[in-house]
Fold this sequence. Notes:
This protein is mainly α. Helix content is 80%, strand content 0%. It is built from ten helices and no strands. The relative contact order is 0.07.
Amino acid sequence: MEPDRKVGNRRRRDARSSDDLAESTTPVDANTALDELGASTSARQPARTSPPPAQEQNERKQAHSAPAARNNTRNRILTVPNMLSFARIGMVPLFLWLGLGPQHHEPAIAVPIISGITDYLDGKIARSTGQVTALGALLDPIADRLFILAAVVGLTLRDVIPWWLAVLLVSRDVIVVALVPILRTRGFSSLPVHFLGKAATAVLLYAFPLLLLGDGYTALANLARVFGWAFTVWGVALYWWAGILYFVQLRHVIKTMPKVGRR
């Protein structure tokens, strides 16, 4: 009868479809497909080979020689930034002589300007060319402090600034220098120069030439005196603020770093 034939046909079709599905998902076919995929992938990828012994030895030599090269650069003396720092130190007696001897204001003002340019150049060249040395890190703050000391002495002897201001500036440097023996007990020769200290030095090196130019009675001298004292007050405040930060750094070094034994 017709309904029975339809049911029978459906049952036969379902049986065939289930047999086909069983044939398509047999484990043998899946494993074979995975084997073929793995073989084709390994054929496309080149085999990795270890470097030859000679190349490996060269790489090891380069790795060991890199720290030695950095140490050699660190210990160099005759570099362009160091020569600029030595030139800045040599300008200090020239500035003092021009301010106290013949009292030529224009050349005396030009000396700190040239010193500031060389201060910028030696740091720029050292960082861009990799000529950062231990001597350069020591010469840079020494040159700054010598210039400030020379300016303070010259302006005080010429009665441009009062003696108490000179004592205020010099005493800050004396305190910072007195911290060096304590730093040496922790293996440091000096504290790193931070931005505030450099900014204070730059402001003072602007202030002192203006005060020197303001030693007169002309309209230009009066204007230079006003700006010079404004820079001086600002510079002294920053100078002592930087000194307080150095003291905070020293306390941190003492608390965190062990003492270094004497050699």
